[in-house]
Amino acid sequence: MKVVKALDEEKIGQEQTTAENKSGYIRFKKFHFIMLLFFIIFLSAGITAFALAFGEEKVVTVGKERAEFKKFYTAYDTLNNGYFKNVDRQKLINGAINGMVESLDDPYSDYMSDEEAKDFHSTISSSFEGIGAEIQEKDGHILIVSPIKGSPAEKAGLKPNDMITAVNGKSLQGMTSTQAVTLIRGKKGTKVELTIQRPGTEAPVKVPIVRDEIPIETVYGEMVGKGIAKVQVTSFSSNTAKELVTTLNDLQKKGMKGLVLDLRQNPGGLLDQAISISSMFVPKGKVVVKEQDRNGKIKEFASQNEGNPTLPLVVLIDKGSASASEILSAAVKESAGVPLVGEKSFGKGTVQTAQDFSDGSNLKYTIAKWLTPDGNWIHKKGIMPDYPVKLPDYASLPIINPDKKLALSSSSEDVKTAQKMLKAVGYNPGRTDGFFDQKTKEAVEKFQKANKLKVNGYLKGDSTMKLMELLRDKIQKNDTQLKKAIEVLKTRMK
Q1: Neighbours of 77 (CB within 10 A)
Q2: Which residue among 113, 334, 335, 343 is the active-site one?
Q3: Rounded to the nearest 10 degrees, how much is the dihedral formed by the CA atoms of 51, 56, 58, 64?
Q4: Which residues of 93-114 are buried (b: 16+ CB within 10 A; e: fewer)?
Q5: Are 136 and 107 in contact (CB under 8 A)?
Q6: Which helix (H) or strand (E) holds 352?
Q7: What is the secondary structure of 386-438 as a DSSP string?
C-alpha cells in the first residue's frame, strides 16, 4: 500500500506542476482534467488489487464474529509463506483438523482422509479386504477390540486387548486407529506382519497374516441341543437385523424353543441395528436405550416389539463385547429380565456420528452418552454378567510366530506356550517351563505324525499353524461359557 500511495502522490504532484505552468490550458480543458483524475483513481485501485492478489498471501480477513481464528490464520500464513520448503496447503489444513480432534482426547472421534473414509464406510455396509479385526486407540496405543469370526485375524490367534505395536516393522506409537487401519489393510492375498504384545506376556511376538476378503456376514445360527439354538452376532452392520430375522425363522422351523444369543467378541456397530434387534426381545413400549446430550437432555428409545419377547433367552458376553452389543445386553437385562453369562463387557458408552466433506474426507465424532434403561452409564466400566464364567486357561495362551523355529535345546517363552498348547490338545511334553528337551521333541513328533505333517521334531510353519488350529477347536468344543448359558436357558424353558 505504501508503494501505491507514493506513486499516487508523485502523479498528483506532476499534474499540479503542469496545472501551474499551463493554467490557461487547464481552465480551457476542465472536463478533461476531471476525467484524468478519475483515471488516476481507477489506476490506483487496480495497482492495489494487483498487490493484494500477487503479494504476500493472506488466507482470509477475520471478522469480529470469528476472532478466535485469528491465531490459526496467522499460523497458516506464517508456514505457507515462511517455511523453508514449499508446503502442501491441503495437508496443513488436514493436520489442523486432525489436531483439533486429537485435542478432544476421545479415541472414538477421528478425522479421516478420503481413503480412510472409504475404509470406514466399507466396514459397516459391504465387504472389505484386510485381516478382519476391530481396533481402537487407547493412551497412544493400538488395541484389538475383537477379531471378526472366521477372519485371518481370528485364525492367527489375535484376541481382545492384544496391543499392535508395529505393522511391517513400522511403529504405531501415537497413531490414531484410522491411521493404523490404513497400514493394516490391504489387498486380498497380500501379507502383513503385526508385532503383538499380549497382556501378561514379557516379549512381543511377530505375527504374519495373509489378508483376505472380509464379508460382512454378521449372523450365524445353529441348533446346539434339543429345542436350543445358538445365534452368534459378530457386529452390527446395515443388514444385521434382517439377517437375524431370517436366521431365527429358519431355526424356528428346526424346532427352536429357547435361544442363546452370543455377543462375545462383538465390537458393536450401528445404533439403529442395536435398537431394532433389542425390540425383538424387549416388550413393546419398554425402554431399550437412552441418549444424553451435552446439555444433559435425555432421549429415550422404546421397543417396537417387532419380534417375540416371550422366547426364553440367555445372552453371552465377554471383554470383547462393546458398544452396540452392550446396548443390546443392557436392554434385555434391565427391560426384559434376560440373564447374562460370561465375562464383564468392554465398556463403551458413547454414541458417534459422521460428517462427510465434499472432498470425500470424513469427521467422526462423539455426540452423546448412551445410558441403559435404568439410567446407568457403563463407559469404561462394562456390564457385569449375572453368571460370571471364564474360559479354560489355555484359551488365553499367546500367539506363536510360525516363522520362528522352536527346536531341541532352545529355551524361550514361545517354547513354554507351545508346551502348554501341546498338553492342552493331548500331547504331553513332560514340562511347561520353556525348555525344549527330548520329551518335548517326542511330543512334537507324535503331534506331527497324527496330523500328517512332516515329522522333524521341531515347530515351525505348518506345524505351528496346525497346533494353534487344534487349540482353537479345543476351545470351541470345551466352551465353558456356552455350557453354562445352555444350563441357565434350560431352567427358563421349563
Answers
A1: 15
A2: 334
A3: -80
A4: ebeeebeebeeeeebbbbbbbe
A5: yes
A6: strand 350-356
A7: SEE-PPPGGGGPPP--TTS-B-TT-BSHHHHHHHHHHHHTT---S--SSB--H
> What residue type is assigned to position 470 of the chain?
L
- Lookup: cell for 218: 454378521
Residue 334 falls in the annotated catalytic set: yes
Query: For the CA atoms of 50, 56, 62, 68, what is the dihedral angle to 10 degrees?
Result: 180
CA distance 197 to 166: 10
Which residue type does 383 have?
A: I
Closest alpha carbon to 100 in 81, 75, 121 = 75
Measured in degrees and rounded to the nearest 5, phi and psi for residue 365 equal -145, 155
In DSSP terms, 163 is beta-bridged to: 143, 197
Q: Name residue 457's amino acid.
A: G
C-beta pairs of 78-87 under 8 Å, 24+ apart in sequence:
81/56, 81/57
- Active site includes 291? no
Euclidean distance between CA atoms 434 and 149, whole angstroms: 31
Distance of CA 80 to the CA centre of its chain: 33
Contact assessment for residue 96 and residue 79, using Cβ atoms and an 8 Å cutoff: no
Q: How many CB atoms lie within 10 A of CB 5?
A: 11
Q: Which candidate in 237, 278, 303, 323 is catalytic?
A: 323
* CA 409/CA 78 separation, integer angstroms: 63
Choosing from 155, 159, 290, 348, the catalytic residue is 348
Supply the pLDDT for residue 24. Answer: 35
pLDDT of 123 > 60? The answer is no
389 neighbors 481 (Cβ within 8 angstroms): yes
How many other CB atoms are found less than 10 A from the CB of residue 132? 27
What one-letter code names the amino acid at 305?
N
CA distance 194 to 171: 10
Q: Is pTM beyond 0.70 here?
A: yes
The label of the residue with cell 495373509 reads: 210
Spacing of C-alpha 209 from chain mean position: 19
pLDDT in tens, 387-444: 999 999 999 898 888 888 999 999 999 999 999 999 999 999 999 999 999 999 999 9
396 is catalytic: no
**Residues 237-293: tens digit of each pLDDT:** 888 999 999 999 999 999 999 999 999 989 898 999 999 999 999 999 999 999 999
Helix (H, G, I), strand (E, B) or coil at 214: strand
